Amino acid sequence: MMASQRPLIDMDGAYELRVCCMGAGYVGGPTMAVIAKFCPRIRVVVVDISAKQIARWNRGDLPIYEPKLEELVAAQRNKNLFFSTEIDRNIKEADLIFVCVNTPTKATGFGAGAAADTKHVEACARMIAESATSDKIVVEKSTVPVHTAEVLNTVFEANSSTSVHFEVLSNPEFLSEGTAVSDLMDPSRILIGGNSTPSGQKAVETLVSIYEHWVARDKIITTNVWSSELSKLVANAFLAQRISSMNSISALCEATGADVSEVARAVGTDPRIGDKFLQVSVGFGGSCFQKDILNLVYLAESCHLPQVAAYWRSVVDMNEYQKNRFSKLIVSKLFHSVTNKKIAILGFAYKKDTGDTRETAAAAIIKALVAERANIHIYDPKVEKEDMIDELQYQGLAQCDIETIHVASSPYEATNKAHAIAILTEWTEFTALPYDRIYQDMLKPAFENNINTTPFSFFLTHPTPLSVLIFFFHRHYEIMFDFLKRPTLEDELFKMKFTAKSLLRNAKKCEKNQVAAKAKLKKAIEQGNMEGAKIYATNAIREKNQFLSYLQLSSRIDAVAARVQTAISMGKLKQNMSGVVKGMDHVMDSMNVEKISSTMDQFEKQFEDLDVRSAYMESAMNSTTAGATPADQVDDLIQMVADQNGLVIAGQLDDAGSVGTELPLQASAAPSKTDELSARLAALRKA
Ligand SMILES: NC(=O)C1=CN([C@@H]2O[C@H](COP(=O)(O)OP(=O)(O)OC[C@H]3O[C@@H](n4cnc5c(N)ncnc54)[C@H](O)[C@@H]3O)[C@@H](O)[C@H]2O)C=CC1
Ligand SMILES: O=C(O)[C@H]1O[C@H](OP(=O)(O)OP(=O)(O)OC[C@H]2O[C@@H](n3ccc(=O)[nH]c3=O)[C@H](O)[C@@H]2O)[C@H](O)[C@@H](O)[C@@H]1O
C-alpha cells in the first residue's frame, strides 16, 4: 500500500505520520523543528552521517546559529522531534523522507566549477532503497539540478524490491539564513512538484496536509516536478541578479556622481520592480547564490543554449568584479600600500545573524589584502576560528598565508593599533561600538589636531580621504562607499573649517615674518644700507599683505561655513547647491587660493536665494594679493621705521634706486608673490 494511502494514524495511535529528514544542517534542522512545532501528531526524526552534528543537536549546543532556533528546538526535542545517527532504522520507520543534504558545486571532473555535485543526494537514494521495506514518499528539499527526481527514481528501481513504491516529490526550500525560523513559520509560498499520476497527486496531498497545519492553502503552489526543481534555481538566480545589477550601477554612480541609494530608491518604488534585494554590497556570499546560478549556467550549456548560459554567468562575473573592486579600493585608500599595515576585519559571516561563512565575500577581500602583505586581524561574534580557516582555505588561501592571520576575541583587540577597519558583515553590534574609544587606540597619520579630536562618529558618516579609517559596511552602501560618493555638504563643511584653520595658521606665520623683516629693516637703516632697507621693507609689506590675504580668506570661508551650517540645520538647502558642492572637494584639497576664492563666490551666490547672506569682506583676496608692492609704500615704510627709531635717512632713499633693480642675489631669487603663496600652501598641505 502507498504511504499516502495509509490511514494517517500510526499503529500505536501516537502519530499521524512519521517523517525522517536526511541532513541535519541549516535547512534540515530548522525546517524539521518548525514541522514538529506545528504538527504535534507527526513524529520527526532528523538523521545525519555526522555523529558530531547530531550530538550537538541533542546536547542543545546547536551546530548552527540561527535566531530563535535554540528555544524552538528545546521545546520540541524528545517530544516529537528527535536527532539520530540511526539512518537505516529511521528510513524503515518513515512514511515520508525529506532529503536535505548539501549539493555543492562540483570541484573536479565533468562540469567542475559549475555543475552541482549530487553525490550526497544519490547516496541518500541508495540508503533509502536499501533500507526501505514499505512505501515511501521521498521529498527533494535540497536544491538540485533539473531532472534529479529522475535519477532518484532510477536508483530506486534498480536497488529495491518491486513490492515497495517510491514517490518522488520536489519541495525546494526558500528560507534565508539569519531569518530561517520566521521564514519557515511564515513562508511567502510553499512549492511542491509532483507527478500527475494518481499516486503522484496523493503524495502531493500528503505533503500539502503537513504544511496546511500552519500555511494557508492558497500559499501552497503545486506544479510538475521539473517546474519545481527549475523554479528554485531561477528564484535564486533572480535574487542574485538584482544584487549584481545594483552593484554594477554602484560603479557607474561613483563615476558619475549619482548616489546609488537614491537610484535604488527611485527605481525600487516602482511596484513592478520592487525595493527588495537592491542593497549594494561588497558582493553576495552564501552557499547558494553562486552555486545555484552556476547550476543554471551548466543546465543552459547542456541544453546548447550558450547565450542563456552567458547571460546568467555574467551575474557571477559581476559579483567577482565587485569583490575585486572593493579590495583594490581599500589598498588605494591606504595610500596604495597595505604592506605590514594592520587591517581589522569586523565580520566574517556572509551576512548577519548567521555563523555561516560559505562563499563569504570577506574571505575574498582578506585573500586580496594578504596578497598585498597586509596584517589581518578578524573579529566575528558568531564565527568560530576553524570555520574561518576552512573557508579561507576553500577560497584558495595558502596555509602559510593563513598562519599570518589573527583571530581576535573582541572588536577592541582586532582594532587596537590598526591602520584601518573594514566592516564586512552588518552585525547589529557593530553599529553600537564606542568608536571614539576604538579610534583613540588606532594608529593615525600626522593629522592636524582638530582631526584627531573630531568625534569618531564623524568618521562613521563622514569618512574623508585624510582618514586612514575605512568603514565598509557590508550591504550598507551609504557608509561603505561614502567617501567615494560626491561629497555631501557636511563633508564640505568639515573641509571648509579645516581649510579656514590652516589659512589662519599661515596668516600667523606671515605676521611673524613681517615683524622679523621690520627688525632687519631697522638694522639696515642704522647701518645706512638703504638698498637692503628697501628689500626688507618690500618683504615686510609682502608679508603683511599675505597675512591679510590669509586672514580674510579664512574669515570668508568661516562665514560661508556658518551659513552652510545654518542652512543644513534648517533643512533649507536647495538642489542647485549640489553642483557647487561637487566641485568643492578638489578645490579645498588643492589649497589654491584663487580657486577657493572663486568657489566661495559661487557658494555665496547660491546663498543669496536662501536669504542667509550676510556682510563679509568683499574682494578680500583680489585687493590684497593683486599687483606688485608700490615703491612709495616701500619708501613710506622705511620712513616710518626710521621715524619710530629716531634715525635719519634724508636723501639716501633716492640714491638706493627702486626695489627690484639693484637687489642682492639672495633677494632677487625670492619667489614672486603668487609663487611664494602657492609654495607656502603646498608646504602647508604636506605638513
Ligand atoms: N542553507 C540555506 O540557507 C539553504 C539551503 N538550501 C539547500 O538545501 C540543501 C542543504 O543545505 P544546508 O542545510 O545548508 O547544508 P548543510 O551542509 O548545512 O547540511 C547538510 C547536512 O547533510 C549531511 N549529509 C550529507 N550526506 C548525508 C547522507 N548521506 N545522509 C545523511 N546526512 C547527510 C551533512 O553531514 C550535513 O550535516 C542544499 O541543497 C542547499 O542548496 C536551500 C535553501 C536555503
Ligand atoms: O537557497 C538558498 O540558500 C537561499 O539563498 C538566499 O538566502 P541566503 O543566502 O541565506 O541570504 P540572503 O539574504 O539572500 O543573502 C545572500 C547574500 O546576498 C547579499 N545581499 C542580499 C540582499 C541585498 O540587497 N544585497 C546583498 O548584497 C547578502 O549580504 C548575502 O551575502 C535566498 O534569499 C533564499 O530565498 C534561499 O532559500
Ordered list of secondary-structure elements with their pairings:
Layout: E1 17-22, H1 28-38, E2 42-47, H2 51-59, H3 69-76, E3 81-84, H4 87-93, E4 96-99, H5 119-131, E5 136-140, H6 148-159, E6 166-170, H7 180-185, E7 190-193, H8 198-211, E8 220-223, H9 225-256, H10 260-268, H11 289-302, H12 306-333, E9 342-346, H13 361-371, E10 375-379, H14 385-394, H15 399-402, E11 406-407, H16 411-415, E12 420-423, H17 428-431, H18 435-440, H19 449-452, H20 456-461, H21 477-480, H22 489-526, H23 530-570, H24 577-590, H25 593-610, H26 620-625, H27 631-644, H28 652-655, H29 665-668, H30 673-686
Parallel strand pairs: 1-2, 1-4, 2-3, 4-5, 5-6, 7-8, 9-10, 9-12, 10-11
Helix pairs in contact: 1-3, 4-5, 5-6, 9-11, 9-12, 11-12, 12-13, 22-23, 22-24, 23-25, 23-27, 24-25
Question: Which features characterize this protein?
Answer:
687 residues, N-(1-d-carboxylethyl)-l-norvaline Dehydrogenase, domain 2, Rossmann fold, 4 domains, six-stranded parallel β-sheet, four-stranded parallel β-sheet, elongated, binds 1,4-dihydronicotinamide adenine dinucleotide
Give an overview in words.
- By secondary structure, the protein is α/β, with parallel strands linked by helices.
- The chain folds into 4 domains: 199 residues, NAD(P)-binding Rossmann-like Domain (Rossmann fold, 3-Layer(aba) Sandwich); 79 residues, N-(1-d-carboxylethyl)-l-norvaline Dehydrogenase, domain 2 (Orthogonal Bundle); 136 residues, NAD(P)-binding Rossmann-like Domain (Rossmann fold, 3-Layer(aba) Sandwich); 126 residues.
- It is 54% helix and 8% strand.
- Helix 22 crosses helix 24 and helix 24 packs antiparallel against helix 25.
- It is elongated.
- It binds 1,4-dihydronicotinamide adenine dinucleotide and uridine-5'-diphosphate-glucuronic acid (UGA).
- 1,4-dihydronicotinamide adenine dinucleotide binds next to helix 5.
